[in-house]
Automatic annotation (TrEMBL):
InterPro entries: Lamp2-like_luminal, Lamp2-like_TM, Lysosome-assoc_membr_glycop. The chain crosses the membrane at residues 218-241. It comes from the Eukaryota. It is found in: Cell membrane; Endosome membrane; Lysosome membrane. This is Lysosome-associated membrane glycoprotein 1b. The gene is lamp1b. Residues 35-58 are annotated as: Disordered. Residues 1-29 form the signal peptide. GO terms for biological process: establishment of protein localization to organelle. It comes from Carassius auratus (Goldfish). Residues 54-201 form the Lysosome-associated membrane glycoprotein 2-like luminal domain.
Amino acid sequence: MSPIIRKQNTPSGAIFSLLLALSIHQTLTADVTPSVVTPETNSPPASPATPGPPEKGTYNVTNATDVVCLLARMGLQLKINFISSSSGKTVQEVLNLHPSLVKSSGSCDPDSATLILTEDNITLTFSFSLNSTSDKYHLSGLELSAALPNMTKRTVFRNTTLNYMVGTLGHSYMCQKEKSLSVTQDFSLNTFQLQVQPFGVNGDFGAAEECDLDEDDMLIPIIVGAALAVLVLIVILAYLIGRNRSHAGYQTI
């Protein structure tokens, strides 16, 4: 007779209950990360990006006989403060003039000259004066008339008592560095790579008289070069003195 093997009953129900209890316990005891509600904030509106350096343009004015009497080569950037029609607050606009879009005109007289640059709704007028006694000229006035999209109305900024771009009759005034010309409290003009000659033009720019900013740039290499020359001279003198002392230490027997 074959032996009878009894199959043991597996307590599957108990195991399932144990696993279910463990799962519920882990769910209840798990760390719950509280959700954080970030309060809404009213961020200020982004300010318009400042444009890069403007493109350099060449402008001229001719007299009644169609002879060039004023020459100018420069990049121009306008910085204007005005009341915005949309917000009612004072805003600042920085604009570059684009030579390809600018129309130039003006006039020349014995002791005064004007250069008028117009682009869309912007008109910029330069006024130059000549002192016939000293043969010195200067930029005596600047006027900007602008009707920007965000302006409540066309605005005019004017100053007729300026003393910029001082030069000598027959010579040009040059300032390659960026230079800011304060015109009024709400308007300033930035010039780049400027060269202008409003009087005594003879076909082309006369010899250039540089502005202080350009002269300072030339002064730095001169100072550095002079300092190096002095240093080399000191080294040579020290070498010669040391050599003479070494020869003096030897005596003839």
